[in-house]
Amino acid sequence: MSLELLPNEILLDIFEYFNGIDLLRAFYGLNNRFNMVLHGRFSNCSIDFHSISKYDFDTICQSHFPTMSKYISTLHLFDNEETPKQIKLFLSSISSFNQFIQLKYLSLSNIRSYSILIRILEECHHLPYLTHLNFYNCYLQDNHVDFQIIMNHIWSLSKLTYCTMGIAIQGECMLCTPAITSTSLTHLIIDRIQVELNQINRLFEFTPKLQYLSLSVRSFIDNNYQPISLPSLTDLSIHSIITCNALNMTNLLQNTPNLHRLNINLSCEIVDGTHLEQIIRNNLPELEILQLKMKMILPLGQHIQNRVDVLLNSFQSSFCNKLVIFNALHVMIE
């Protein structure tokens, strides 16, 4: 049976299995009817430019965006070895983000230029329905980068609820907290940069509705930290690639009475089940799930199997069995 014999409703159902790029490659321009049905499909369109050829990228930007940009709800852009300078080329091909009037989800990967990042953030203010903004694997190598401006731009987006900040800056390893209050942001992932314990209070001061937070804590010992309650936080992910004095995580967790889910990923430390149980019983009455991933490095000849057995046995209480999900336990021998 020919596709052209199918009613429009069936064609739309079939088109649901394709992303926007594949639909344009396969069906656009075959005839006027297919073009009309595609425009109906693009009333809620997702465009993912991952691994796209330069020819297809130019064709979509030049031939399709003028008419379909107002229908796009999701857009993913990449600067990597397969698609070099894609984001810069995209910005040069459009006059403004204000033509993407339905855009809700914007993801950008591998940005290396501060000026391009600022241009994007400025353009985001033209997106009235933007709720999700994600930066992945971005590394800014410019001589003059104002992290405060980056943070303030993001926090001033009035509809933004979800944000991934995978932005590293050459010569800097610590987060800069915002100076503008976001009344919409509820989910925040901070990646590629560390957060000091005393910065968390300021983060919540300017993000009062934050419910989910993922971050790398530099250390759970901080003489400048003043504990305050964080009642909005219900889901917390803590990860660290260095020793962060995890045995002292009570300093933070005592302020999260409504936490329902806790994810701990430690690359250089081990916290035993007895200690974790004590922390939970004393500070986290609402906790339902604890996801745990830990790594320890042991010198050769230190009764490795014995130590691993003792550690695993510390998680065998009925309390831990009810809460703990072991994602991974890695033991490395030096």
TrEMBL record:
What SUPFAM superfamilies has UniProt attached to this entry? RNI-like
Cite the F-box domain residue spans from the record.
1-52
Please name the PROSITE patterns in this protein's record. FBOX
Q: What is this protein called?
A: F-box domain-containing protein
